[in-house]
Amino acid sequence: MAERDLTVLFLAHRRELEVYLARQVQCRDTVADLLQETFARVAQRGVGPGVNNARAYLYRTARNLVIDHVRREERRQTRPLPPAMLADLPDSAVPADRAFEARQGLERLSAAMKELPQRTQEVFQLNRVEGLTYGEVAEHLGISESSVQKHLARALLHAMQCLKSL
User: Fold this and answer.
1) C-alpha 46 chain-centroid distance
2) All residues at 6 or more sequence positions from 137 whose CB lies less than 8 Å from its CB, including other chains
């Protein structure tokens, strides 16, 4: 869109669009931001030849921006809960004894993995920790998928045996 055309559009519709936006949102700063964003989008996209009514196009753009703004604000808001409801919420903290047991289990698993050959450790790390598929692991390490499966089976069997013995 030509700068001159945008200036004419801005001068012709800025005030009425500002009033429209002020009715939609109560914050003057937000109105100013939305107004600026409306014209920025029109400048960026332009009012193409298929648009017969530039004023309607401006209003549609502004309305879409208001809808986006309201949705963002709704997601961002937290609503206070009555104290009675807070008491009913389950405690999501892990008890200290379970956290300690989990930490010990991870240390045992780590020690068990260090007993394996380097290639088996790499396969386990890439597949189970980093989440790569068998094919991705095979490609990354330059081995076949069958080899990946064998290394992984060896690692899992060894880990289960080590954890069972404890």
Assistant:
1) 30
2) 123, 126, 127, 148
Which of 76, 99, 120 is a domain's end point?
76
- In what helix (H) or strand (E) does residue 8 lie, and over which residues does it extend? helix 3-24
- Enclosing domain of residue 67: 3-76
Domain contains 85: no
Cα–Cα distance for residue pair 90/69, rounded to 1 Å = 33
Structure tokens at 154: 């060896």
For residue range 102-140, what is the model confidence (pLDDT) as tens digits? 888 888 888 888 999 999 999 999 998 898 999 999 999
Q: What digits encode the pLDDT tens for the residues 53-106?
A: 888 888 999 999 999 999 998 888 777 777 777 667 677 777 888 888 888 888
Contact indicator for 121, 114 with CB cutoff of 8 Å: yes
- Please give the Cα distance from 54 to 14 (Å, whole number): 12
User: Does residue 18 lie within any of the structural domains?
Assistant: yes
Shared domain check, 69 and 25: yes
Angle in degrees, CA 164, 122, 99, rounded to 5:
45
Q: What is the pLDDT of residues 136-147, one digit of tens each?
A: 999 999 999 999
